[in-house]
């Protein structure tokens, strides 16, 4: 950490600041220049609060030099984390494709969609039982029944299931779920993150709509610091001023997250763009940029879907997209998983 | 709602679409032009999902014409909502000033700060017991003990208290709290909003870091649709590309929210800017633009604060800011409340 | 400037880097820590390119500590710059109000509007002769004739005139203009800025739609570094994800620019919001936050305006807004200028 | 175009509005609903100003239904535009790779870099002669001499050259340049665009840092409406709140621009990310998403570059990236051009 001092800071003030800083078990190094003075802090500064240091009247600015996350940091864990999800390896040399409807709507709908997804080559099944909807008047999901229907679909197809938790008091219903998803709007629901940190289940953590990559990694750190290291990072688009897409998919997040962290990286082109015809090019871009998995919305009848119709693919359209994904994944040396 | 049809849509497709739409109990009106055809929907479209309509193969785009919120909408409730908070009127002809520390840290700290705030003219006391922190290694708040200390400070000063809930399973601890705050990161924690909708307590709802004003109003609608109409809207800065301030305080949110809704509007210049010296000008700007209340961070000893030191005012600095706020509030015809 | 070294940097690499840096006439100070090493640079680093330093294979990151601007920097010029514009003082203890139509459309329109603005209390006249329009099919301005009409309006009313230049080859037409405006889209038209730096006329420089305050100050620096120190900074809204307003007016820019720089600060609520009913509250907010001038669009017949009709006030509406501005400006101790 | 009327609009007001609208040679269709009334406009609305319609006192909102651009619109020009640039076909079934240094610095530097680029497989040469720099104290380019050195490099290597114009009074120096580039900061320098519209040369138009895709297409329309239809669209990253990259490369712009327009689409991963190690993954993502060309910065000695060192590749690194690009381009059926 580097502290820039105000020009007018007195020697006495600086001395007091240094004494106070050293109380945090770090060494300090004062660098005096012509136009400015800075203090370099040496040691473990993860627990120090930048804002509190900036509150000191002789401080002009504070710059962090080290990343504030440890468990999620590749520097301390150079090898890729590879998760085993009901036999599927996520984060290794195979690409996983998580497909399924935005919402679970009925037994017929989820079973039919799951079978179609599997036939097309999907390796995991997604489906929303609890649905975070902007409007209280929109369909809110089948909740407990939705999870039960997903488990039936798993039995039918053998696909492990991924579904979203919206509140920690529902966690008990997720005991047979394979991957628990945390939605973008809950990325900084810290109480939920801590509770998930005490589970022994993979957590797919979606980047918030306006979250930085460092904040995403800090939210992963919340889960990991409680003991659960099975975290999957998910890029799903960020909010920008561009109105043509719902959000802007930040493809550069893939190589950056892989560089900064050892955790697997998933990309969700469906929510990012909100436009079904963009799913193919954005999926291919994500594979080319090195993602470990894709999460794609597929619905057996999108125009009668209860949510997000515009971005869900029909089984037919998904089959065509999957052919391209399979070929590209093979080409880049990370073929779509084929567990059987 | 207006539906723009694709050029290549066939008569048969359009007929089917119209039939399907009319199943939602709305009337349709097809307008055929040279370059484009549109369908106007007449009736209550609040329950209709734009995305699902856009999933139809003959639809190019859908534009909403009416606001998707009702309870929060001034069109249906022309008079200002005025809340009574332990004798203080929020939303009426008096300005409320909610002051206090970012976090409750100790009995001495909160009592001392509360007394100083009251002496300076604050009309309510804020203080965080549950603290949403980006890092799991930062101070997380005194939690239940923090609420108890706030209640002591209320007893000492007579100031009603405002404090944040982070998870619905903690709600039982808030029974004596005067105003329950929902933080920016929880603005779309819909399960929490619904639970608050079943309380009979004022809820101060902060705008998410990248939420639109319509989304803020939809989150208010979540609370109100469950029966609790005591919602307070809070502008606390949005995320932009500008690095000099932590966020960008959107002052235009004040007149817009007052125009669109009948709910009271609070402004938090402390979190918006993250810089204590900006609190005075931004508070004055907010009062000039017509806010109903300010929420300002004050700490008896900011440079030893456990969180957000850089943005908290000392009691002395707060006193000076309050003098200016009082004078301006008097001038604009909405004086700071003086309940005694 | 502070340079953070990569963990794996060798002593030889660091030595070479230090030698190379010292070739720029700065002193270096190497701080070695447990987890990281940093180099502090002491001296004038304004001419050093951060990107080039970051290109060095042993460098992890570079942080600037000093501002990269000098002429515009309050540290080196503590006193406020006060400009004399045809007898009006901008930047001092009087508030200036620049009013007038978006575009000059005809002699009748500009004279009628100018008289109405003056009667209401405006102190300068604005009007677009060259119009930057998103569409090539929109009205592009009367150009040279527009400037001539503005000069007639000046003769009629005594109001100094402010009008925008779009290209440096038109500069010769601006010899009798009082203030040359640079639009948001040209804030980084560096060739134009340099040409304006060689004029002896006040330049009103608008912040780009997505420019940081530091970039605005660097663009001011471009003008000033060529010899023209008569620069006026203008906040006119930045682009965010919020769709209700055209842009988001960043009121915190006012105190920040006044703090970082000695140049006068103008606020344009008309372009920032694009909504005429927001002009009053946003003007008052800007005055309360300490701006030196307002720039407001007024048109004698907005609904027949050739550009930006929705955001222009009628003379009647402007008169009412001016009454409030005058009263507030008086109250905050910076009354609207009254040169007569 | 669809006009939403205010609830309180009187019949007389609506009648006057309709009369006025029909003066623009469009037909109107009034749709009366329970909660709202709308007017649908039928005909060519490209010349109508939304803001002026919104200024009408009985109008609540105006929504455009048709795109406001024509020459750039795929609807009116279904076939891809293919440009011939000194024998290279851009926009067809070959991928072009434009490589070269950020700035032309010396004869040795540009010739050496050009040869290395060509050997690695680049098909065009880029190099900045006029440099838009944020700081007036940074290197501003060799200007006229820079163009002459580029022409020497063209002679040496046979590569057509791409270089940026910053001001229209320099245009006469570009007569032998193959592609004239317009930088992001000049995307809405409308006078420059019009002048380029009167040239008979391909123009590579970069998306502004905060420009929407529609605005980019409108700027293309400026050039095309003056007669020059040889426009190349370039995505180079947009400004977001994410600090890890300089900008966020919007890969979804590629399929969207190809869908909305017939013009070729180029992607510049170097400026978008500002980080040389991201150039490989982002280039591959862009190729997978269907771009027509890449523009990549290569410098024979990046750590002594006079600008943008951190994002320029060494010839060695570029060779490795090109091997991957060539293989992927071949795989997706759009091989890198090989004109010889």
List keywords for this structure.
homotetramer; 340 residues; TIM Barrel; 2 domains; four-stranded antiparallel β-sheet; elongated
In short, what is this structure?
The structure is a homotetramer of 340-residue chains. Chain A is α/β, with parallel strands linked by helices.
CATH class designation of the largest domain in chain A: Alpha Beta
Order of helices and strands of chain A: EHEEHEEEEHEHEEHEHEHEHHEH
Annotated CATH topology of the largest domain in chain A: TIM Barrel
Main sheet specs of chain A: 8 strands, parallel, barrel
Domain count of chain A: the total is 2
The outline of chain A comes out as elongated
Average pLDDT, all residues of chain A: 92
Broad structural category of chain A: alpha/beta
Strand order of the largest sheet of chain A: 7-8-9-10-11-12-13-14
**Largest interface, and how many residues on either side?**
A-B, 59 and 59 residues
Distance N to C terminus of chain A:
51 Å
Overview of this protein structure:
The structure is a homotetramer of 340-residue chains. Chain A has helices at 11-22, 50-54, 107-120, 144-157, 190-197, 213-225, 253-260, 269-273, 279-288, 315-331, and strands at residues 2-5, 27-32, 37-42, 59-63, 83-85, 88-90, 96-100, 124-126, 161-165, 179-182, 203-206, 231-235, 265-267, 293-297. The first copy, chain A, is an alpha/beta fold and 340 residues long. The first copy, chain A, has two domains: 2-63, Phospho-2-dehydro-3-deoxyheptonate aldolase, domain 1 (Alpha-Beta Plaits), CATH 3.30.70.1140; 83-331, Aldolase class I (TIM Barrel, Alpha-Beta Barrel), CATH 3.20.20.70. In chain A, the strands form three sheets. An eight-stranded parallel β-barrel of chain A has the order 7-8-9-10-11-12-13-14, surrounded by five helices. A four-stranded antiparallel β-sheet of chain A has the order 2-3-1-4. In chain A, strand 7, helix 3 (107-120) and strand 8 form a beta-alpha-beta unit. The radius of gyration of chain A is 23 Å and the shape is elongated. The termini of chain A are far apart. Chains A and B meet through helix 2, helix 5 and helix 6 of A and helix 2, helix 5 and helix 6 of B.
């Amino acid at each position: 950490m580097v502290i820039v001092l105000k020009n007018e800071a007195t020697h006495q003030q600086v001395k007091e600041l240094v004494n106070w800083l050293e109380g945090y078990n770090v060494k300090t190094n004062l660098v005096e220049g012509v136009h400015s003075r800075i203090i370099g802090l040496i040691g473990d500064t993860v627990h120090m609060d930048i804002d509190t240091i900036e509150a000191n009247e002789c401080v002009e600015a504070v710059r962090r030099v080290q990343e504030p996350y440890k468990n999620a940091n590749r520097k301390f864990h150079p090898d890729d984390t590879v998760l085993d999800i009901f036999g599927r390896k996520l984060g290794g040399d195979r690409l996983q494709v998580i497909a399924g409807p935005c919402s679970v709507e009925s037994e017929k709908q989820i079973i039919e969609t799951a079978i179609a997804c599997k036939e097309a080559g999907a390796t995991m099944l997604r489906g929303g039982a609890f649905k975070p909807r902007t409007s209280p008047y929109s369909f809110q999901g089948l909740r407990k029944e939705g999870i039960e229907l997903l488990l039936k679909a798993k039995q039918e197809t053998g696909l492990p299931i991924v579904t979203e938790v919206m509140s920690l008091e529902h966690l008990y219903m997720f005991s047979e779920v394979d991957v628990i998803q945390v939605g973008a709007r809950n990325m900084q629901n810290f109480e939920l993150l801590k509770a998930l940190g005490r589970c022994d289940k993979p957590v797919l953590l979606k980047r918030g709509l306006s979250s930085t990559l460092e904040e995403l990694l800090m939210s992963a750190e919340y889960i990991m610091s409680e003991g659960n290291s099975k975290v999957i990072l998910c890029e799903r688009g960020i909010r920008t001023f561009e109105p043509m897409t719902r959000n802007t998919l930040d493809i550069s997040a893939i190589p950056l997250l892989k560089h900064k962290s050892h955790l697997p990286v998933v990309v969700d082109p469906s929510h990012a763009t909100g436009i079904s015809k963009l799913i193919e090019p954005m999926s291919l871009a994500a594979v080319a940029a090195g993602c470990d998995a894709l999460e794609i919305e597929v619905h057996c009848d999108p125009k009668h879907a209860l949510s997000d119709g515009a971005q869900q693919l029909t089984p037919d359209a998904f089959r065509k997209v999957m052919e391209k994904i399979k070929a590209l994944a093979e080409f880049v040396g990370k073929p779509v998983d084929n567990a059987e």
